[in-house]
Inverse folding.
């Protein structure tokens, strides 16, 4: 009999403890704030209002909120219709449904028409223990393949709040990955500025560059601290907007460090690592490079600390990969 | 601004029939220069589009983006031949431009794109229309606009499950500013309707729609059904239209029912003579 593991799959809506600074419902809070002075903002969900943190909008502006039930194709179609009457439609569901189930509606009803629809995706990444039905780990790749679509993977509560305001202001169709409920504050809101389409160099060091997106930026910053204690100076480039991708920032970093590690909570093909390797290839660069991401397989159910460690996304595993990279191992 | 259509009583049936005939003539010309086209479907829906664009819709041909307009959504984008005919007849598109239908770089595409003036949605990925119509109806109501949304969809198209997601939502949101026009011409890509979809009126009625069923090629019936759909009683309206593919040209009405009608090069003159002979 296999050794029982310490963890367990959490119930839907149950959350691992968040140590340190955190904010409750950063997306819903920020959305209500912008909606106060932008009456054209409306919200929609497909029976996942409280699981995607959009219920503050429902409570603040009930006549501007529409729950279409468990019908994600219709969610996106209705959002597109609202946008075509001049509304800014924020539509929430889980990432797996926004992509796999509603893909044609995202592509044609929204992106092809440049409809002002902001798709905000719950449970993106390996951030649920509910297995392949709920883990959107190929969503960035799917969405980046759709023309006109802007794709965002924020790091923390600071990033989510700033990005929510930014995408409300920017016309067109967006896909943004979410963290809900109690969300860590990693980036200092006094110093950090989310800029649409721009990467942010959060830390400078000349030995290695870690290029990260989403919550892996938090892991990258922790890894950089650990590496510093070993005398390794790491840069951390945070890429919250994957499409359009900030090639200039990447190439500037690549010119300053001998090795790059790409860290994403996504399958290693079709996401950030693909963007990075394309940009490097086009620029004629071939630095030592490690791709830290998920394998091309469906992930099982389980506890997040267990799964993230097993699949190489925990901070200690990131540190190990960077150490190995510096010894020449990709 | 010249807003068209303050529906008159009695309705100008003879004028509308003349518009429908003129649109059919445009369609035959478009299909002829291309040697093909969705002429069967276009001829079948011509009476409904004539009744909408020249009687029921409140819109402004000189300003097709006017915010207060009624919206007409052609979910079946491949019926574009009929929409181009209506827009040309209304002066939105020059009649001479109809000759470019389906040609490279023409904005009068075989399947609609919303970059062409007068086109509300990209049709053709079937199952997309009704949900967007629900969204538009919600948006107009939020704006306290009294404009309405008319969405054409087809019998084959209702096999797409998204149609029923939207059909469930419209009565839930009490969208009495929404009219679904379900064109039942009995054909789809693989031939006669391949999987049972009847009873259509009862399906919509059971979802909570105020649903009627008419002969979609009977102008008086079309106009009367559209008038009845003006009721603002908290329920969306569905009009099931029984239409005849190829309507107006007997040789096409009786041809084997096909999604894409094949017409030989030497047939066009005879078809045109049939269309003109049948007028009135």
């Amino acid at each position: 009999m296999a050794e029982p593991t310490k963890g367990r799959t959490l119930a839907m809506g149950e959350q691992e403890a968040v140590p340190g600074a955190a904010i409750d419902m950063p997306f819903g809070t920020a959305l209500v704030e912008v909606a106060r002075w932008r009456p054209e903002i409306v919200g929609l969900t497909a029976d996942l209002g409280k699981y995607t943190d959009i219920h503050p909008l429902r409570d603040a502006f009930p006549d501007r909120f529409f729950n279409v039930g468990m019908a994600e194709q219709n969610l996106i179609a209705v959002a597109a219709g609202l946008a075509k009457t001049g509304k800014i439609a924020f539509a929430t569901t889980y990432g797996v449904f926004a992509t796999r189930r509603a893909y044609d509606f995202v592509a044609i009803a929204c992106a092809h028409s440049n409809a002002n629809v902001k798709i905000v995706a719950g449970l993106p990444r390996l951030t649920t223990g509910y297995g392949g039905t709920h883990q959107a780990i190929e969503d960035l790749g799917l969405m980046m393949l759709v023309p006109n679509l802007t794709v965002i993977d924020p790091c923390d509560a600071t990033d989510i709040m700033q990005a929510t305001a930014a995408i409300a202001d920017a016309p067109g169709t967006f896909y943004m990955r979410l963290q809900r409920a109690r969300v860590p504050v990693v980036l200092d809101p006094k110093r950090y500025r989310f800029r649409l389409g721009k990467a942010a160099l959060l830390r400078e060091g000349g030995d290695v560059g870690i290029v990260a997106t989403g919550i892996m930026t938090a892991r990258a910053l922790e890894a950089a601290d650990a590496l510093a204690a070993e005398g390794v100076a790491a840069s951390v480039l945070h890429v919250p907007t994957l499409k359009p991708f900030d090639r200039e920032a990447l190439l500037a970093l690549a010119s300053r460090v001998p090795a790059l590690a790409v860290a994403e909570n996504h399958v290693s093909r079709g996401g950030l690592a693909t963007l990075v390797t394309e940009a490097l290839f086009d620029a004629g660069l071939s630095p030592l490079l490690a791709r830290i991401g998920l394998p091309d397989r469906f992930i099982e159910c389980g506890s997040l600390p267990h799964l993230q460690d097993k699949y190489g996304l925990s901070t200690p595993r990131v540190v190990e990969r960077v150490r190995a990279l510096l010894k020449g191992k990709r | 601004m010249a807003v068209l259509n303050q529906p008159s009583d009695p309705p100008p049936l003879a004028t509308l029939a003349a518009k429908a005939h003129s649109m059919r003539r445009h369609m035959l010309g478009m299909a002829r220069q291309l040697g093909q086209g969705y002429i069967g479907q276009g001829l079948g829906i011509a009476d409904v589009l004539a009744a909408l664009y020249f009687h029921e819709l409140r819109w402004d041909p000189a300003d097709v983006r006017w915010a207060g307009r009624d919206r007409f959504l052609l979910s079946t984008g491949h019926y574009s031949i009929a929409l181009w005919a209506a827009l040309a007849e209304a002066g939105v598109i020059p009649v001479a431009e109809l000759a470019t239908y389906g040609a490279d770089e023409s904005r009068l595409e075989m399947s609609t794109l919303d970059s062409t003036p007068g086109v509300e949605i990209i049709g053709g990925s079937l199952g997309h229309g009704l949900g967007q119509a629900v969204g538009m109806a919600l948006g107009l109501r939020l704006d306290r606009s009294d404009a309405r949304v008319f969405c054409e969809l087809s019998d084959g198209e209702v096999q797409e499950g998204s149609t029923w997601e939207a059909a469930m939502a419209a009565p839930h949101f009490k969208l009495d500013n929404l009219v679904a026009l379900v064109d039942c011409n009995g054909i789809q890509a693989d031939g006669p309707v391949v999987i049972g979809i009847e009873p259509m009126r009862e399906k919509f009625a059971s979802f909570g729609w105020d649903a009627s069923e008419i002969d979609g090629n009977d102008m008086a019936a079309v106009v009367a059904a559209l008038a009845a759909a003006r009721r603002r009683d908290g329920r969306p309206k569905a009009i099931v239209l029984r239409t005849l593919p190829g309507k107006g040209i007997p040789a096409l009405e009786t041809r084997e029912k096909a999604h894409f009608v094949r017409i030989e090069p030497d047939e066009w003159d005879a078809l045109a003579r049939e269309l003109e002979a049948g007028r009135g």
Observations:
- The longest helix of chain A spans residues 216-229.
- Chain A is about 35% helix and 20% strand.
- The interface with chain B takes residues 42, 63-64, 66, 68-69, 71, 73-74, 76-87, 89, 104-105, 108-109, 112-113 of chain A (CB under 8 Å).
- The mean pLDDT of chain A is 95.
